[in-house]
From TrEMBL:
Binds 1 heme b (iron(II)-protoporphyrin IX) group per subunit. Belongs to the peroxidase family. Classical plant (class III) peroxidase subfamily. Belongs to the peroxidase family. Ascorbate peroxidase subfamily. Residues 1-22 form the signal peptide. It comes from Cucurbita maxima (Pumpkin). CDD domains: secretory_peroxidase. Disulfide bonds join C33-C112, C66-C71, C118-C318, C197-C229. This is Peroxidase. GO terms for cellular component: extracellular region.
């Protein structure tokens, strides 16, 4: 009888291991890089000390990574033979922070060479950026591998634009399996960081061919922003005029006051009859509610179509695929 039981147990184990190689897990690097969370956190803190915008840059990279072919580090690949970089897609205009990723990756490589993917580094660094600046913390899931391709056409069609309507934004989220609560919660990352005037100055006059400014933009705030933007379209304004560098719920109280910076921010609250209004109100009322949903939505986003098991690779240099010869990508930087 014992021997006939052995077969089902074997199959059960095979199933479990099979499943774990296709899923992300908190313990993925426990044996191969146990200090990973500490290494990344220290590097993120150091980056934020010299550049207060570092956290916002890192989380944007993770977000734009996950929305194109899943969280596979594809956003980080630069133009190269056979690679058409996603960085040149309109949705990635002005994206920054690759040198911050390089610094984090170098710190990780020195302790755990050829072990940790760039996609996992973006996920961990995003969590650290949020909690270093006052937001929630959570247990990051790991086990993503890096793509050997970029998908610029995927970036062109999949990344959200500040000029889109709520219906279009919802569609882009649902295309990657994310819902309305994810959209509202993840937009809350605009509680820190900056945006350039070229992405919102169309709201100042003749908005949507109406001959008038965007009616959902508070008039005093509009006047303030016009002053900021008189310095030119590449001038930056804070996403959150109240606490620009703190991760808090003020993004939502700003929306209630008509002080969302981008059209795509304010639509969450100002689109008539939208189901997002009640979610904005609940996040504005209680920071704990926002933090809880944000944590969950970051995990949901981090789970989008990861490359796992033996697919993809562990990139040595986050900006390019490993070379076929030598495997580990001999750096010629
Ligand atoms: C690129 O992205 C598009 C849109 O998501 C998708 O249909 C296409 O299969 C992707 N191409 C590759 C090579 O992954
Ligand atoms: C702009 O106008 C079009 C046509 O009137 C309308 O369908 C669309 O919802 C408007 N967009 C915004 C953001 O108000």
């Amino acid at each position: 009888m014992a021997s006939s039981n052995a077969i089902p147990i074997f199959f059960l184990l095979a199933l479990l291991f099979g499943a774990s190689s296709a899923q992300l897990s908190e313990t993925f690097y426990d044996r191969t890089c146990p200090r990973l969370p500490n290494i990344v956190r220290a590097a993120v803190k150091k980056a934020i000390e010299t550049d207060i915008r570092a956290g916002a840059k890192l989380i944007r990279l993770h977000f734009h990574d996950c929305f194109v072919n899943g969280c596979d580090g594809s956003v980080l690949l630069e133009d190269a033979p056979g690679i058409v970089s996603e960085l040149n897609s309109p949705g990635n205009q002005g994206i920054q922070g690759l040198e911050i990723v390089d610094a984090i990756k170098a710190a990780v490589e020195s302790e755990c060479p050829n072990t940790v993917s760039c996609a996992d580094i973006l996920a961990q660094a995003s969590k650290d950026s949020v909690d270093v600046q006052g937001g929630p913390s959570w247990r990051v899931l790991y086990g993503r591998r890096d793509s050997r391709i970029a998908n610029k056409t995927g970036a062109d069609s999949g990344l959200a634009s500040p000029f889109e309507t709520l219906v279009q934004l919802k569609k882009k989220f649902s295309d990657v399996g994310l819902g309305t609560t994810d959209l509202v919660a993840l937009s809350g990352a605009h509680t820190f960081g900056r945006s350039r005037c070229r992405f919102f100055s169309h709201r100042f006059a003749n908005f949507n061919n109406t001959g008038r400014p965007d009616p959902s933009l508070d008039a005093n705030y509009r006047g303030f922003l016009q002053g900021v933007c008189s310095a030119g379209p590449d001038t930056r304004a804070n996403f959150d005029p109240t606490t620009p560098d703190v991760f808090d719920k003020n993004y939502y109280t700003n929306l209630q006051a008509g002080k969302g910076l981008l059209q795509s921010d304010q639509e969450l609250f100002s689109t008539a009859g939208a189901d997002t209004i009640a979610i904005v109100n609940s996040f504005a009322a209680r920071e704990g509610t926002f933090f809880k949903e944000f944590r969950q939505s970051m995990i949901n986003m981090g789970n989008i179509k990861p490359l796992t098991g033996s697919r993809g690779e562990i990139r040595k240099n986050c900006r390019r695929v490993n070379s076929a010869m030598g495997g580990e990508g001999h750096d010629v930087m």
